Amino acid sequence: MINLFEIARLLSQAGVEFVIVGGVAIRSHGGNYITEDLDICPSRTRDNLKRLAGVLAPLRPRPRGLLETLPFVFDWSTLQHGTNFTFATSMGDVDVLGEVKGIGNYDDLVKDSITVDLDGFPTHILSISGLIIAKEAAARPKDEAGLKVLYALRDSENDEE
Amino acid sequence: MGRTREDKLLNPKPGSRIAAAREYGIDLTQIVENLRLTPAERIRRNDQAVNSILKFAEAMRRAKTAAKEIKLR
Q1: Which of A67, A79, A133, B36 is the most exposed place for a label (fewest CB within 10 A)?
Q2: What is the DSSP letter of B69?
Q3: Per residue in B35-65, pLDDT tens?
Q4: pLDDT tens, residue by residue, A93-112
Q5: Are residues B44 and B29 in the same domain?
Q6: How many CA atoms are closer than 13 Å to the CA of B67, on its beta-carbon side?
Q7: Which residues of B touch A153 (CB under 8 A)?
Q8: Which chain B residues are within 8 Å of A28, Cβ to Cβ?
């Protein structure tokens, strides 16, 4: 069973510093986007990567597409030695991003995020305007519908439509 | 007094980006429904939707496998 909510909640509960970006962020803002993966951009300090690895390790993360027969060691140093990872876990896919195109790394993202409550745990989610910047910078055809949703969400919040 | 967010989404001004989203095919009524939920509820609804889709996909896979087996008999 996919449980992206629980992954995000566990990360916040463990004190991991991260910002949710991508489809779950759009969904959190009210979009009718359905997504199978949780995209996060964590702070890349050693302590934070250790906390992140501590939450993900029990979910048996493996790089998506990697043959089951190939060895893979997951720990905080794995995260430290790469920038972007696409993991399959027992609760659903988790993409760990070192930076987001158009905005930057965790420190940049957190300034442009809102904080939402996930069952008592404050969690950073990239703002609607931040998501628009990221999607426009990525300029991928697959993001066209998501951008339309984001524009509608943003403009419905504003005084002027 | 300005229009409410729901009103803007349900009755977008012609030529606006909200109207463009509706014309593109975005179901704005779903967005209105989502906005009535908390962010946590919205993420949970996403998970429920994904799990439902995966169940359908699994049912389709089983049905195709069963159909192949019947053909082979």
Answers
A1: A67
A2: H
A3: 999 999 999 999 999 999 999 999 999 999 9
A4: 999 999 999 999 999 999 99
A5: no
A6: 6
A7: 31
A8: 39, 42-43
